[in-house]
Amino acid sequence: MTMNSRPIVSGYPSTMVDDVQLNTTTLIRHAARTHGDQEIVYRTANGGWGRYTYAEAYERVQRGANALRSPRRGPGNPCRHPRLEQPSSL
């Protein structure tokens, strides 16, 4: 990496004397790998309960990231996918 370039995603430096940055992607990936079957329980918009596993959460994060990396995305081409515009759907 040159002096003028910065990483695209940066997180808080690791406290474990390794090169792993602490950011949301790293945390959800670690949870999916080590506790993939553990359920996340949350309240839905209508007051009910929803649940999915850490592995399913990481899969959803990856799908959202891939949609944002689509060749159709770029400057001046905003995201118009209805599921990505509603935070409760992720």
Describe the overall structure.
The chain has 3 helices and 2 strands, in the order αββαα. The chain is of the alpha+beta class and 90 residues long. Strands 1-2 form a two-stranded antiparallel sheet. The termini are far apart. The mean pLDDT is 76.
Give the uncertain stretches in residue-range form.
none
Largest sheet: 2 strands, antiparallel
| Estimated radius of gyration | 16 Å
Order of strands in the sheet with most strands: 1-2
Q: How far is the first residue's CA from the last residue's CA?
A: 33 Å
Mean pLDDT: 76
Helix content: 25-40%
| Number of helical elements | 3
Backbone shape: flat
Beta-strand content bin? 5-15%
H/E element sequence: HEEHH
Keywords summarizing the entry:
90 residues, alpha+beta, 3 helices
Summary, kept brief:
With 90 residues, this protein is an alpha+beta fold. The protein has 3 helices and 2 strands, in the order αββαα. Strand 1 and strand 2 form a beta hairpin.
Topology of this structure?
Layout: H1 24-35, E1 39-43, E2 49-53, H2 54-68, H3 82-85
Antiparallel strand pairs: 1-2
Helix pairs in contact: 1-2
